[in-house]
Design brief:
Elements: H1 2-16, E1 45-47, E2 55-57, E3 108-110, E4 118-120, H2 154-226, H3 238-284, H4 292-306, H5 314-324, H6 344-348, H7 357-376, H8 392-423, H9 432-435, E5 439-444, E6 447-452, E7 456-461, E8 468-482, E9 494-503, E10 515-522, E11 527-535, E12 538-545, H10 553-557
Parallel strand pairs: 10-12
Antiparallel strand pairs: 1-2, 3-4, 5-6, 6-7, 7-8, 8-9, 9-10, 11-12
The structure holds alpha-D-mannopyranose.
Signal peptide: 1-22
Domain MRH: 437-551
Biased composition (Polar residues): 384-402
Length: 563
């Protein structure tokens, strides 16, 4: 049925243009199409179409006997139907003298008024079967073989056909419109990539300059740092270290002086108490007892008391308080020595302090340069060679440079990615750019199959469980197909079709890595029509998409390898 239907379309098409002149032509013999009418105009003789050297009386036309080797004398009977058919129809005359043993006519012409005229194979003429698909007017069964009577159904069939055709045209127009939209979208996306490339190029230029300048500035800062004082681990320069040591030493001494003073004061209090006791003893003892020991003790006390023993000097004590007080005027201002950066040069060459600032700066910078030169020539040790002592200025400069380099690298790799993308094949009018990563699904058997355009194909078990990759996009190709076109038009039909190849999917146990060939045909919307596992883990999907409507596949695949 379907094959016949396809054949009928092929036979119908050449007729559409030629029927308009039919009204002015003289009546044609039965079964002759308008484009062959010119061969049957002579009222006396007929010249075989492909063998013009053979002529027969006009009465032999349609006499149910095959005279011409090309069967052209029997356009309205099945008498010459044994001759190989000619395909496609070729209404031209052959070379004189040559005997052509294929049919000169495409078949028996059915006028099909109310529908579309068409040719029916000569074998079907008067075979006792109504072939309404090709001959809706029933004119092929004019002899009523076996009592068959094929009434004209062209009005009904034509009406139905026009209705379907209208729907087909509508759908085709919608598909064409969708295709236009996709092309516009693809162009927009391409432009976006081109614009991004421009932006990135400009950005990269700027960033390259920035990196160069940050590199220079890092070198300068590192160099300048060499001219600075050696630092302890985070504690500042030599003077700072020294002052910090002095400060803690003085604090220690102050503390000890304080402690000694309080010890002294407590010893003095005890001495005072003892002296008071001895004084009372001398005043209160009884000299009449004549105790020699007591007398000796009293004399010793009198000798002791007679000596001039002055206590702590209060004025000196006050001075000491003043010296030890951190708030006193004369206290050392340690903060002044706790600066984080300091030049040895300043310390070593105090005379600078007497110089005017510009001169001092100049001297300072010259001395730094000298120091750097000495370090670079190995005469002085490099204070910055120990990475743990790297200054904040160097660390900051290095981190700025690193982040600028990172940004530059990111932009460069994005640029490469976009440039490669522009060179990629996205099909006719780059249309698949607009469909890239758009996915469609269809249930089939125990799986739901997914096709994501120019990305991948996937098999998902309906009962749950892991998804199986059926391949990743590799390239656009083409394939010749020859299939029945279903009535709803959702199929590949026959001819060249664009196909998308997906490879290197999940490995198949005891087999290859899964792969899928997605064959595309024109449809109003993107949809999977059919999935077949042609061999173990080798799949084929038939997919409808407006992207391929009206596309000349041959042009598309030029420069590509065909399957
Ligand atoms: C799974 C599916 C099938 C495939 C087998 C091979 O069941 O991917 O399509 O044929 O594995 O083992």
């Amino acid at each position: 049925m379907g094959r016949k239907h396809t054949a009928s379309i092929a036979l119908l098409l050449p007729l559409l243009a030629s029927t308009s002149n039919a009204a002015s032509d003289p009546p044609r013999p039965r079964g002759v199409g308008p484009e062959f009418a010119k061969f049957y105009k002579n009222p006396d003789t007929f010249m075989c179409i492909s063998n013009p050297n053979i002529t027969v009386p006009i009465a032999n036309v349609n006499d149910d006997y095959c005279d011409c080797p090309d069967g052209s004398d029997e356009p309205g009977t099945a008498a010459c139907s044994y001759i190989s058919p000619l395909s496609p129809p070729r209404p031209s005359s052959g070379k004189p003298g040559a005997v052509n043993e294929t049919l000169a006519l495409p078949g028996f012409y059915c006028k099909n008024k109310g529908h579309i005229p068409s040719y029916i194979p000569f074998t079907n003429v008067n075979d006792g079967v109504c072939d309404y698909e090709l001959c809706c007017d029933g004119s092929d069964e004019y002899e009523g073989v076996g009592g068959v009577k094929c009434e004209d159904q062209c009005a009904k069939i034509g009406k139905e056909w026009r209705k379907q055709d209208e729907a087909r045209q509508k759908s085709l127009n919608a598909a064409r419109q969708r295709r236009k939209d996709l092309i516009a979208e693809a162009a927009r996306l391409r432009k976006e990539v081109e614009d991004r490339i421009q932006t990135l190029k400009t950005q990269i230029q700027g960033q390259t300059l920035k990196v160069e300048s940050l590199e220079k500035s890092l070198v300068e800062i590192e160099r300048a740092e060499r001219g600075k004082v050696v630092k302890g681990a985070g504690k500042g320069g030599k003077i700072t270290v020294l002052s910090s040591l002095a400060k803690s030493r003085i604090e220690e001494l102050t503390e000890n002086v304080g402690r000694l003073r309080s010890e002294r004061d407590s010893v003095k209090a005890r001495v005072d108490e003892l002296e008071a006791m001895l004084k009372r003893f001398k005043e209160e003892y009884n000299p009449n007892f004549n105790d020699e020991g007591v007398k000796r003790a009293v004399h010793a006390w009198e000798d002791y008391a007679a000596q001039d023993r002055s206590g702590p000097n209060e004025a000196l004590d006050r001075d000491l308080d003043e010296i030890l007080s951190p708030d006193s005027e004369s206290a050392i201002k340690w903060e002044e020595f706790e600066t984080t950066e300091e030049s040895d040069v300043e310390v070593l060459y105090k005379f600078e302090e007497y110089l005017p600032t510009p001169v001092r700066d100049w001297v300072d910078s010259k001395l730094r340069d000298l120091r750097v030169a000495l370090i670079e020539n190995g005469i002085l040790a490099d204070p910055t060679s120990d990475s743990t002592t790297e200054s904040k200025a160097v660390t900051d400069a290095r981190s700025q440079l690193d982040s600028a380099k990172r940004e530059l690298d990111n932009d460069k790799s994005e640029l490469t990615r976009h440039q490669e993308d522009l060179d990629k094949d996205y099909g006719p009018d780059s249309i698949f750019r607009a469909l890239k990563d758009i996915c469609v699904e269809k249930d089939s058997g125990e799986y739901t199959y997914e096709h994501c355009f120019l990305s991948r194909t996937t098999q998902k078990p309906k009962k749950g469980g892991g998804h199986t990759g059926m391949g990743n996009f590799v390239h656009i190709t083409s394939i010749t197909v020859d299939e029945e076109l279903p009535a709803d038009g959702k199929g590949l039909g026959s001819g060249e079709r664009i196909a998308l190849k997906y490879e290197n999917g999940q490995h198949c146990w005891n087999g290859p890595n899964r792969s899928t060939l997605v064959v595309l045909a024109c449809a109003e919307k993107d949809e999977i029509w059919k999935i077949v596992e042609e061999e173990k883990c080798v799949y084929r999907m038939e997919v409808g998409t407006p992207a391929v409507c009206g596309v000349d596949v041959q042009k598309v695949v030029e420069g590509h390898d065909e399957l």
